[in-house]
């Protein structure tokens, strides 16, 4: 889970001209697993203090998304309206000419009949929409070394991803927490989950729950004899 999450955050930081840094110091009371952002010159931008790295993955992601939206709004506000063109004055009508005396004209010859125009070609039928389909259980990664994340839909207000676990659990001293609300359903396998101030529950295929933004939570176990497949919807 951490490897793919880190890669996603690095890619988002690169789009902003920044670099993601992560602590790997495991000494007690240290900043292991925390993040920070620096600019191209190595100057701290977010999450780096006197004691080391301070930001969570959710803090980094939320900051980068908000920064991207702010950039879009500021660029949209720079478009200037085109000035209105002054109306074109109507031309002054010329005086009507004095009619000349009528002269008996010779009859004009009758025009030759013109061939009938060919009908326009029929428009080609509009091609039918090709529907792209995929399967949540196709080409499942083994996920034995680390949980695997696959983004299925990513929009400013909602993100849907598939998570594949295989025997992983959350360390007690490293709870998971994100800024957005998260709706999770277990599709395959078995897992346990605990939210702060609650007892652990066991999830089986079809079971789902909602984790409020800011709530610390732990995956207490996942099945070791088969992949456990989750569908997570992040809202907000």
How is this structure best described in words?
Among the domains are: 2-71, no CATH class; 148-235, Sandwich (Jelly Rolls), CATH 2.60.120.10. Residues 74-82 have low confidence and may be disordered. The chain has two helices and 13 strands; from the N terminus they run αβββββαββββββββ. The longest helix has 20 residues, at 57-76. Strands 6-7-13-8-11 form a five-stranded antiparallel β-sheet, covered by helices on one side. Strands 1-2-3 form a three-stranded antiparallel β-sheet. Strands 10-9-12 form a three-stranded antiparallel β-sheet, with no helix packed on it. It has helices at residues 2-15, 57-76; strands at residues 19-22, 35-38, 44-46, 48-49, 52-53, 148-154, 158-165, 181-188, 191-195, 201-203, 208-211, 217-222, 228-235. The protein is an alpha+beta fold.
The CATH class of one domain, by name, is Mainly Beta
The CATH architecture of one domain would be: Sandwich
Strand content: 25-35%
Number of strands: 13
> Taking Cα atoms only, what radius of gyration do you get, to the nearest Å?
34 Å
Order of strands, widest sheet = 6-7-13-8-11
| N/C terminus separation | 21 Å
Q: How would you sum up the major sheet? A: 5 strands, antiparallel
The secondary-structure element order is HEEEEEHEEEEEEEE
- The low-pLDDT segments are 74-82
Coarse structural class: alpha+beta
Percent helix: 10-25%
CATH topology type of one domain: Jelly Rolls
Count of alpha and pi helical runs: 2
> Superfamily at the CATH H level of one domain?
Jelly Rolls
What would the average pLDDT be, to the nearest integer? 85
Overall morphology: elongated
């Amino acid at each position: 889970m951490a490897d793919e999450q880190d890669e996603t955050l690095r890619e988002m930081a690169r789009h902003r001209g920044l670099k993601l840094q992560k602590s790997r110091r495991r000494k007690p009371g240290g900043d292991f697993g925390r993040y920070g952002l620096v600019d191209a010159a190595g100057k701290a931008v977010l999450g780096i203090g006197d004691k080391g790295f301070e930001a969570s993955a959710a803090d980094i992601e939320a900051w980068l998304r908000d920064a991207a939206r702010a950039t879009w709004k500021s660029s949209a506000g720079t478009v200037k309206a085109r000035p209105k063109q002054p109306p074109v004055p109507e031309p002054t009508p010329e005086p009507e000419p004095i009619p000349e005396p009528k002269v008996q004209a010779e009859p004009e010859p009758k025009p030759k009949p013109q061939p009938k125009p060919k009908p326009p070609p029929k428009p080609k039928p509009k091609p039918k929409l090709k529907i792209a389909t995929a399967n949540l259980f196709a080409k499942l990664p083994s996920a034995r070394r680390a949980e695997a994340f696959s983004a299925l839909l990513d929009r400013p207000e909602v993100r849907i991803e598939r998570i594949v676990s295989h025997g992983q659990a959350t360390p007690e001293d490293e709870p998971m927490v994100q800024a957005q609300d998260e709706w999770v359903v277990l599709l395959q396998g078995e897992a346990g989950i605990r939210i702060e101030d609650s007892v652990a529950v066991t999830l089986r295929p079809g079971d789902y729950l909602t984790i409020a933004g800011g709530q610390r939570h732990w995956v207490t176990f996942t099945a070791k004899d088969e992949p456990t497949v989750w569908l997570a919807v992040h809202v907000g």
